[in-house]
Amino acid sequence: MAGKLEGKIALITGAAQGIGLAVATRYAAEGATVVLSDIDGDAVQAAAEGIGGSASAMTADVTSEEQVAALVGEVVAQHGGLDIAVANAGIATVQPAVGMSLADWRKVTSVNLDGVFLTLTHAAGAMAASGGGALVTIASVTAQAGSPLISSYAAAKAGAVNLTRTIAIEMRDHGVRANAICPGFIDTELVKPHKKTFADALGLEAMGIPDFDAFIAMKQGRYGTEEEVAALATFLASDRAGFCTAGEYNLDGGLRASLL
Ligand SMILES: NC(=O)c1ccc[n+]([C@@H]2O[C@H](COP(=O)([O-])OP(=O)(O)OC[C@H]3O[C@@H](n4cnc5c(N)ncnc54)[C@H](O)[C@@H]3O)[C@@H](O)[C@H]2O)c1
């Protein structure tokens, strides 16, 4: 049976590990030719080799316009076009907004917002030149609510969602669709180092909640998986999602919907 992305050329940023790697793996399994990109050249090379087949790796820092332009140009030159781009690269730091330096603020917003801007706009330009395509932004539920200790992350994600929506409208007549996925907590390397800080800041021990994992189990049932994000990213990139554009899709076990 033909895969859902048969014959498509897909570029995924931040694909050396975590959600990006899961998306690339699923896209390849669905018949796409995947280009994995990451700031970590060795890791992304190993990730592409792990997928095998026609998967390949390119090193690029999404905060550099020069590097993103070269990345998109290289994908088009090597594969004859670009059908799908996933703006997935992201980082997180944990500290209160008040007292944060502008440099610390920009460390996160440069990757999570500027990086999305560069990825989406350069990819959309290439797609429009060859009849259209699909953009998928990996945002976050933190885009939708105040998010203590991760202000720069949440503000950048909110900006990324709105930017995705805007590009979707601007590019509709060029055949380019753009959608954002807003995952709740997925147990990746982005989250793992910060669990204790969150647990302490939330005062979980005093509430009789043993740790951050138990808190997540209360709030969203369990951690989501990278593969679950990849499944939604596959649908949104596929031709079956032809009428889906400018959307914001929560994938959070109900986290955002609950007040208590
Ligand atoms: N894990 C979660 O709970 C969660 C929830 C919602 C959204 N997200 C988002 O999903 C995306 C992937 O996160 P993850 O959990 O897989 O994290 P991760 O840390 O496992 O992977 C992030 C990848 O991005 C790469 N990267 C970082 N800076 C980069 C740059 N400047 N240029 C290119 N690549 C860069 C890293 O090298 C890494 O391979 C991020 O945008 C993150 O904000 C994650």
UniProtKB/TrEMBL annotation:
Domain of life: Bacteria
UniProt keyword terms in alphabetical order: Oxidoreductase
Keyword Nuclease tagged: no
Gene3D superfamilies assigned: NAD(P)-binding Rossmann-like Domain
Family (UniProt): Belongs to the short-chain dehydrogenases/reductases (SDR) family.
Stated name of the protein: SDR family oxidoreductase
